[in-house]
Write a structure and sequence with these properties.
mainly alpha, flat, transmembrane helix, membrane, transmembrane
């Protein structure tokens, strides 16, 4: 192909496919199975040491919020809610409770592997040799006019 012109065609009159090829490249997963858009959005999470960076940033933000809490004067109805750090501790306790309650809730709602019996076979009480509804003749309903 030669140089493309302004109308989207090359010198021989064929359309130039560069735009479609770039779009196709953005929508085709790599050999590793990673979609290119996810690589753009979440590729930074594969950097070495990113977990430590996130931890220390969150730790710094937490310490800043806790230090600001020492200077805020509260006038809450409940006496213990006026203590510094109360809402942070209360939030942590409630979140931990929600996470820990997932374990017994999961055991309560979870079903056995063979809950539906054999996944490949017919359900219990169904005869696999019985004719299907399509194989049966149409029902004939008698009415007053039939002899």
């Amino acid at each position: 192909m030669s140089d493309p012109t302004d109308n989207g065609r090359d010198d021989s009159g064929r359309f130039v496919k560069r735009a479609a090829e770039s779009v196709h490249k953005l929508n085709t997963p790599s050999a590793e199975g990673i979609h290119p858009l996810s690589q753009i959005l979440f590729g930074w999470t594969h950097r070495k040491g990113i977990g430590n960076i996130i931890f220390y940033v969150l730790l710094g933000l937490s310490l800043i919020m806790l230090s600001v809490d020492f200077f805020v004067v509260r006038h809450d109805y409940l006496k213990f809610a006026n203590y510094s750090g109360f809402y942070g501790i209360w939030g942590f306790v409630c979140f931990s409770f929600a996470v820990i309650m997932g374990w017994p809730l999961g055991h309560m709602l979870r079903r056995d592997e063979n809950y539906y019996n054999d996944a490949g076979g017919p359900p219990e009480g169904v005869d696999p040799e019985a004719p299907m509804a399509d194989d049966l003749p149409a029902p004939h309903h008698t009415s007053e006019g039939d002899a």
